[in-house]
Records
---
Amino acid sequence: MPTIKRIDHIAILVDDLDGTLDFWRDALGLPLAHTEENPAEQAKIAFLPAGDSEIELVKPTTDDSGLARYLEKRGPGMHHICLEVDDLEGMLAQLKEKGIQLINEEPRLGSGGKKYAFIHPKSAHGVMVELYELPG
Amino acid sequence: MPTIKRIDHIAILVDDLDGTLDFWRDALGLPLAHTEENPAEQAKIAFLPAGDSEIELVKPTTDDSGLARYLEKRGPGMHHICLEVDDLEGMLAQLKEKGIQLINEEPRLGSGGKKYAFIHPKSAHGVMVELYELPG
């Protein structure tokens, strides 16, 4: 059976990356591991490890992406939670069997060889859930 | 220096605990560790461990609590993120020094002897952040 291993990250949508780092890095003291541009998401992302998980601060870099529209509509705040799973294809099959609506029916390939897929918030009662399978 | 150790939990506000467990427990396969009534929060809470953290599903049990009003206004979804800190009083002092607005200026005492405090979402750029110090 495919198994959730841990919370990989919490993604927080921000309109000002430096201003938000004032809180997470400078006030709370979380380390800033790195930042990267993500052209696919049209966003700049700051990664701050917390124990076995990460806080990701996501700043849209264009005005017309899905993230930018979400930010404009709902304002800055938590955007999604990402869970690591040991077998993403198996999990997606299990979810479909249970009638869960997926944004990505098949795993997509992200940076560093990780596989990911999003579950539709409708099926997760208002929460955007991402699943990761990390390369072994 | 007070240090964030990990993400303790993500709290998700729900309007139907059983319906939401259909997703988190029955479809994703997360274990349901236990549920408890929390009279202070006027909520029933389901705890689902994920690695070193937990997903908490929070269902208001009255219509007029802060949680119930938040649910009515924003709908079901992520409510707050809780970080474990090794020294809560030290962290609150550090946050005040940095000009961060706190909901709880002093640690409050929760179940099992844990100390907790909430940071105001204004200072955390739209995110409700809770801090825990667990009994040693």
---
Amino acid sequence: MNSILVVGSVALDTVKTSSGRSVEALGGSATYFSLAASYFSSVHLVAVVGEDFPREHRGTLERRGVDLAGLKAAKGKTFRWSGKYGKDAGAATTLTTHLNVFKTFRPTLSEVQRKVPVVFLANIDPELQAEVLAQMQAPALVACDTMNYWIDSKPAALKKLLAKVDVFFSNDEEAKKLTGAANALQAAEVLSGWGPSVVVIKKGEHGALMKVGSKVYVFPAYPLAHIKDPTGAGDTFAGGFLGYLASSGAHDDIGHLKRAMAYGTTLASFNVEDFSTKNIEDLERDAIDERFHDLSDRMSVPRADDLLKSRRAVSV
Amino acid sequence: MNSILVVGSVALDTVKTSSGRSVEALGGSATYFSLAASYFSSVHLVAVVGEDFPREHRGTLERRGVDLAGLKAAKGKTFRWSGKYGKDAGAATTLTTHLNVFKTFRPTLSEVQRKVPVVFLANIDPELQAEVLAQMQAPALVACDTMNYWIDSKPAALKKLLAKVDVFFSNDEEAKKLTGAANALQAAEVLSGWGPSVVVIKKGEHGALMKVGSKVYVFPAYPLAHIKDPTGAGDTFAGGFLGYLASSGAHDDIGHLKRAMAYGTTLASFNVEDFSTKNIEDLERDAIDERFHDLSDRMSVPRADDLLKSRRAVSV
């Protein structure tokens, strides 16, 4: 089931961080997701751009093998977002949002697209997410994300959607807001009661947790002393996670789900090291695996038996 | 080197959290540290209490085998602290601090105490920490902690002390304040330049990181949906960490240092599940190891090879 359909936004982002500024660069939830997932699975992108969408950005996605048959070019301008980040590279402050052609986005899937086995509904209107899902022909795995805007404006539609979703990605603030829970753990508990068998709560620099059935798994972020631009980290995480999971062929296996968390963390860590999508456009698979193994090592707790065998240090 | 000397505070704490209230209960940095470390190593406590210190609290420490030869009972009242926590169980708001007999605390170590191989200088005046350290006879391992108060009032003395310390524990806010760094990673970089070969930065519910040489290791917290009282979590972490490390007999070994992080995390997770020291006064070593292994499992990333061998899930 090594093939994923993603529906979401493709945008031009203007971003200011403590490391500098990036103007009308490639962005959007579906873009970050597609690039990250493309290292593991084949990706079919469903989105809309305007007549002004730079040809080079199409090239960036095509070079990663992303199928752009579903990337519609509509009359008008491409969705634009601008925001800024504080010194701590935490949550963005939105400066402007111009939906433009995205305002009337209403995707109709092709026969080929309907049959893709894995679908990721990136953070768009939950009613639109449900419409897309309804067009899918018995998908094996359905995942979605959302954002504060939809939690405030359409909580009922979102809750209804979650009943049909296998994997739900949320950041911790959104999860607490949506559920009214006091912390991420309690939020995950409530969310898994609403339907998703896997709930992933992303905490930025503090890592992420995953609830599968009644058990919670915990993961630190990859340690980075300098973050240039956190835009798209969450979607990149979801792309690495779902791209790997789809490629594993065993999306119920807890071992593969844990590896998916580590691949999500790995891809997100690359993404925040440069502006826009620059650092995830052209990675070597070896570089991804090297950081994946480095992360695994930095967070592993060795068994006592293994230490007795391979101790290198001086005993005092 | 299975023996630790700890110098710090023994206090009576009054605490209010969203789970309730605890009045004049056993507290203090040296108390939490001693109880946690006692599950792994023998502990010699050096501190002062007043004439009003309840006999039952001595009993609590004695039942854990903590050597109280260095617990002086002085004329006057025991150190008292009161504070409250918000719904998120984050940083405490101090309501009152009455140093009482602690104000004139000036420990003189006995011949036996001077020879203890591992020393933990809990968060007291850095000049006092240095005085205690100067009395030690060639300790094999020196660790210390501090707090905002000393970072503000005696930063130079603290920095001087760090040059003589092997392991420095700090929470992330304190580390950033002390170094002026923008994040915990950068703070750890600066701090390790000041002397300690191991820098541990504690982030509460977000886990902890450890810098050893040029490499940073990252650890999530044990996932708990309900925290009754976070008081003493940091000192309990240090006790679990150092207690285990001292017992390992190989404090330079990265494998044992990683296991020490996981034991620190484990002990701290027990501590916050009840008020005061209630939940770390009488643990079974088996219960500690069970949670240690549970934590290791929740945060482990399996190797692909291992999954091919033991896959249990249904492939789609």
